[in-house]
Write a structure and sequence with these properties.
Blueprint: H1 2-36, E1 44-50, E2 52-54, E3 60-75, E4 80-85, E5 87-89, E6 95-97, E7 103-104, E8 109-113, H2 116-151, H3 157-189, E9 192-194, E10 199-204, E11 211-212, E12 217-233, H4 235-238, E13 246-251, E14 258-265, E15 276-283, E16 294-299, H5 303-307, E17 310-314, E18 319-320, E19 328-335, E20 344-357, E21 360-365, E22 372-376, E23 385-389
Parallel strand pairs: 1-23
Antiparallel strand pairs: 1-22, 2-17, 3-12, 3-16, 4-8, 4-11, 5-6, 7-10, 8-9, 10-12, 12-15, 13-14, 13-16, 14-15, 17-21, 18-19, 19-20, 20-21, 20-23
Helix pairs in contact: 2-3
């Protein structure tokens, strides 16, 4: 009996040991799986641009936009139904309302709102003025009589003060009525929308029968007898531009060069693009240049830059060096050996920069043509970081 008992105990101990061993093995396996499962940091998305050769004898070229010298958005002051729009004879001989491309002169009527209710308001305000004037005249005479009686001690001070207060109140009522009549007259006048400048209709937003409110835009009119050509230059070039400088531009639609003068230079750079806005004004009596056209202009460059081809990169690719605060650097991206398939790593490389060339900048040392540099996202990455090229 004792032997059998010992056998059962031994079997039970062995079974418990095996169970404990199995549980330990499972824990080890789970532990290994947990260690193998490493969450990877997402790769920073960037855009890259190949390093190229730039420069040339024609100077640094900039793209510019042609805008009108003056552009006015015309809106109704008085609301109501549009009763009429000025007519023009179209190219097909038919009479039609004003359209984009029609010429209008300063003071010309462009559209009218229905005036009936505004005439009624003027008539009502005029009647109120007449009524207030009569009351004011009566109170003025009463006050004059009261003044004479009070001077002869035939009227009490209280009666005199009442006559004076009545005269003052009626005089104020007359002034208020006259102001209301003036406003009614202005509202009637504002039923007619006139062009404040001589120019071209750029846009029409209403039709006859449209219900408009105060402030509803009806037309956009632009004066293009003088146009402005607007472009942006970096801080390294802004010192070369002076107000009054002659500047030539070219367009794809107008043959030859067109000359104008620099009439405006922005005192501060745009916070996003880091360029200064410059305006060149050009006489345009023949309307050759139209708002929205793209123009090109060239600013002179150094003699050394004209003589040799220079490595250039986008301005956005150049950053301050993280290792040398007084130097500049770029991130060069290359496929990295020893990393996951398709991985690209960005390495910071110190460079020496030269003059800017439009939206690009010359690199005099540190890069070779054909290398790829980060042109968007350079401020978001660090040296040796894996990136995802968009």
């Amino acid at each position: 009996m004792n032997g059998k008992r010992r056998l059962q105990i031994t079997t039970h101990v062995r079974s418990a040991s095996l169970t404990a061993f199995a549980m330990a093995a499972v824990l080890v396996m789970l532990s290994g799986c947990a260690e193998d499962k490493v969450v990877e940091k997402p790769k920073t998305p960037v855009r890259v641009t190949p390093v190229s050769l730039g420069g040339g004898a024609s100077g640094i070229r900039y793209s510019a936009n042609v805008t009108a010298n003056t552009q006015v958005n015309l809106a109704f002051k008085s609301g109501g139904y549009v009763e009429a729009i000025t007519q023009r004879k179209g190219a097909d001989g038919r009479v039609r309302p004003l359209e984009a491309g029609d010429v209008v002169s300063s003071g010309e009527v462009l559209a009218k709102v229905r005036e009936g209710e505004y005439f009624d308001r003027v008539a009502q305000a005029t009647a109120q003025v007449a009524q207030a004037r009569a009351a004011s005249e009566k109170s003025r005479l009463d006050f004059e009589r009261a003044s004479n009686l009070f001077a002869s001690n035939s009227m009490t001070k209280a009666q005199f003060d009442a006559a004076k207060a009545s005269d003052d109140a009626n005089s104020a009522a007359l002034n208020s009525a006259e102001a209301a009549a003036s406003q009614a007259q202005i509202a009637l006048h504002d039923c007619t929308l006139r062009s404040p400048i001589t120019g071209w209709v750029i846009q029409r937003d209403v039709e006859v029968g449209s219900l408009v409110g105060s402030g509803t835009q009806a037309f956009v009119v632009a004066d293009t007898r003088v146009v402005k050509v607007v472009f942006g230059v970096p801080d390294t070039m802004i010192q070369r531009i002076r107000l009054g400088d002659l500047q030539s531009i070219t367009t794809l639609t107008v043959p030859g060069e067109i000359r104008g003068r620099v009439t405006s230079i922005s005192p501060s750079a745009d916070p996003k693009s880091r360029v200064f806005s410059v305006e060149v004004s050009i006489a345009n009596a023949d309307n050759r240049l139209k708002p929205g056209m793209i123009a090109t202009l060239a600013l002179g460059i150094d003699k050394a830059m004209r003589e040799v081809a220079t490595v250039v990169v986008p301005l956005s690719a150049v950053i301050r060096s993280s290792k040398n605060g007084g130097a500049f650097a770029v991130f060069v991206v290359t496929p990295e050996s020893g990393t996951a398939a398709g991985s690209t790593v960005a390495h910071e490389r110190e460079v020496k920069v030269g003059p800017t060339m439009g939206n690009s900048i010359a690199v005099t040392q540190g890069l070779q043509p054909g290398e790829n540099v980060v042109s968007a996202g350079a401020t978001e990455i660090r040296d040796g970081e894996q990136v995802r090229v968009l």
